[in-house]
Amino acid sequence: MISAIVDMAIGLSRWRTSYKLGLQDIELRYKRSLLGPFWISAAMVAMVLALAYVFADVFQTGFAAYIAYISAGLLAWYLILALVNEACGSMIEHGQFLQNVRMPLTVIAGRVVFRNAVVFLHNLIAIVGLLFVFGASITWGAIAVLPGAVTILLFGYCLVIALGPLCARFRDIPLLVQNVMQVIFFLTPIFWMPSGVSHRPAFTVVNPFYHLIELVRAPLLGSEPTSLNWQVALCSCAFAGLLAILSASIASKRLTLWI
Length: 259
Prior knowledge:
Blueprint: H1 2-12, H2 15-29, H3 38-55, H4 63-93, H5 95-100, H6 105-133, H7 145-169, H8 173-187, H9 208-220, H10 227-251, H11 255-258
């Protein structure tokens, strides 16, 4: 386990490599594309408008207010979902690197985090623009979105190290995770309001994804994340970090055989 921690520390010192690889991924993925990463933002805006058109009347909420609620929720959810899905395939994606050169797992995790941070910033710009169009007031308190997003990125960073080797060893796990995340999407207050199901606190109180989402959604809606939101989110990061250390220590000498 100590060797795994040392290896992770070496990878953290190479953050510039992760940064450059992450930017390279964005450039190659959207090469010769007119909108680049804003295509993801356009798809998100279309999803927001479609869900608002369908569910605003169902939940008896004003259209503009529901647009603000669901857009802020989807902004955080898309970031979480991308980090989880890419964490599952991260080691398989870097199979050729890992078999030929010594690459710390933290370099791979940083690469995943950096490229998703860039996409998040594009999505944030699109969502803020959408909120302005529908008359939402954005205050200076909305800057608290940034520490919330950093917390989600930290959570994803640990997940890459924790899930990456595990998914390389057991190839059914990525499919399982995708199905589980689809279920979590419907159980988490993203397009529905939690006040309507107060008799089921498990959907909010013990749901770590709800608290992570609130770190981003609450500032955009003009409020502040609660202390419970921060406590659960940070505990989730700590738990993911422990799993990352355990996974890295187990996979340190076996990962190249699993890929």
